[in-house]
Amino acid sequence: MFGISELLEQDKIQIQKGQVTKFSVLRSSDINKKVFNYLKIRLSNLYIEVLDIAKGNILTLMNLEQLEGWCFDTTESAIVFFNDEDDIKRGILNISEKYPKYYHSWICFSYEKEEYVFDPCLNLVCKKKDYMALFNIQIKGQVSAKKVKKELMKQVIPFQKGKINIHGIENVNAPFYRNNSDYKIEIEQGKIKKMQVYYHY
To answer: Which element (helix H / strand E) includes 58?
Structure first.
């Protein structure tokens, strides 16, 4: 997997040449500020520590481009703060001619009857139809927020006062896939109130 920072730098170069890229199209799309506020509220209690490199709220790390290479862990952590019917999609993106098969994971969610994509590792929030069209998506698997929450609670509750390691399996439709993170969770009235996630190799 190549670095997102490399893509972003390439994007800047192409913009300077007057060319429009997929990233610049999605980032310039008209997204209601209410959508960003919705995400800010939903994800306000999700904190991530990436190795010894960075730590903070997921949206802060997203804006600082510190979640590169952690798409499976990040989407599986974030999805538990979304509605049960929202889901994680896993598949292949056609980023460019140079990178036509980028294996990736992102979140699809609904807000006021419109479907959106939250992609913290590519630093994108956009309409689902635009994301799907521009990246010519090939979906390989998906899992609902409800299933991820259920599996997370099942594994964490016996160790609620401390960290627990969750190791994903090689099933693209599983709640946890290619994940190897530590979780510490606060539960209130049977729901996840706050979560800290520690990424490591």
So the answer is: helix 58-63
